[in-house]
Automatic annotation (TrEMBL):
Name of the featured protein: Low-affinity inorganic phosphate transporter
The entry's keywords: Membrane, Transmembrane, Transmembrane helix, Transport
Membrane association type: Multi-pass membrane protein
One Pfam family named in its UniProt record: PHO4
GO biological process terms on file: phosphate ion transmembrane transport
GO CC, any one term: membrane
Length: 341
């Protein structure tokens, strides 16, 4: 019975990973589609490929942060297998619900922060505030602000450097060069997306396994977790969330290939660097900041700040909304267990 429950929760975690890729596909392909460098179908295949190969060079520092840096793993494990399973199930369902809602609304919210919010909300009824790791949550909260600012800064710098480098060339030659270079920048960003986002689900799966059937083993990330999580997020990216592509690639600002290259490179470098430090950040926040940075080099009016404002409100509400949804799922799940018993 316990093994069956564990397998089901791991499957739910991989479903979340798939939805993460589906929801965040826009982050990887919006610029390359909006500049017409690749068709939508080729763009998602390109992004999915690099999402997957990130498994072979991304490391597992973010996975360890998600597994033991948000909730007190040892304290949760001491509550027993049932507590571990219901907390993780509620966390995942709260995050999935928020991701699907924001996808439906066409808002690029953060899957990373939805999962973190779900974990916080589901843990509170079981362990209270002492079950939360304050330093880890503070780090994630800080980078809600810092990651888009860093992305904006690097996107702006990349745009200015790129523009200065080719300022003596004809527009046709610049367009041709950067259409080719955007394939590279899109690959960089898709690799960074896989590196950062797939690791979060690895951490969740590790909590489930090492908190239940493998209690006697030390917490670590196995190779099969890495491969399965990258495969799930790549598959989700392949199916793509087209509603959000429109918001990111067309509604926020108008991008030429040189701007797409600058935004993707700036955002991708930011995410890879932070992943190497073990900091779970939002690819959505980072690429949005980079796109705004690129757009702002053409003047304040080049960015549609009303659209940016809608995105920011989605950021603000993601953690509390997914936490609330996780609490509701937890309460319903406990009620069903009581009735069954």
């Amino acid at each position: 019975m316990l093994l069956t429950a564990v397998v089901l929760i791991v499957a739910v975690a991989l479903v979340f990973d798939f939805i993460n890729g589906f929801h965040d596909a826009a982050n990887s392909i919006a610029t390359v589609v909006s500049t017409r460098v690749l068709s939508p179908n080729l763009a998602v295949a390109w992004a999915a490929f690099f999402n997957f190969i990130a498994a072979f060079g991304g490391g597992v520092k973010v996975a360890n942060t998600m597994g033991k840096g948000i909730i007190n793993f040892e304290m949760l494990r001491d509550q027993g297998s049932e507590a571990v399973l219901i907390v993780i199930f509620s966390s995942l369902m709260g995050a999935i619900a928020w991701n699907l809602l924001t996808w439906w609304w066409g808002l690029p919210s953060s899957s990373s922060h939805a999962l973190a919010g779900g974990m916080i909300g589901a843990t509170l009824p079981v362990l209270g505030y002492q079950g939360l790791v304050g330093s880890g949550i503070a780090k994630i909260a800080a980078f809600i602000v810092l990651s888009p600012l860093i992305g904006m800064m690097l996107g702006t710098v990349m745009m200015l450097v790129s523009t200065w480098t080719v300022h003596k060339q004809t527009p046709l030659k610049v367009d041709t060069w950067f259409r080719r270079l955007q394939l590279v920048s899109s690959a960089i960003f898709s690799f960074s997306h896989g590196t950062n986002d797939a690791q979060k689900v690895m951490g969740i799966i590790a909590v489930v396994l090492f908190g239940t059937i493998w209690k006697d083993r030390p917490f670590h990330i196995d190779w099969w977790m890495i491969i399965s999580c990258h495969a799930a997020i790549a598959l989700g990216t392949f199916f793509g969330g087209w509603r959000i592509v429109k918001t990111m690639g067309h509604s926020l600002t108008k991008l030429a290939p040189i701007g797409g290259f600058a935004a993707e490179t700036g955002g991708g470098v930011t995410i890879i660097a932070l992943a190497k430090l073990g900091i779970p950040v939002s690819t959505t926040h980072t690429i949005t900041g980079a796109i705004v940075g690129v757009g702002s080099t053409r003047g304040w009016r080049a960015v549609k700040w009303g659209v940016a404002g809608r995105i920011i409100w989605a950021w603000v509400f993601t953690i509390p909304a997914s936490a609330l949804m996780a609490v509701i799922v937890y309460a319903v799940s406990k009620g069903i267990l009581l009735v069954v018993r």
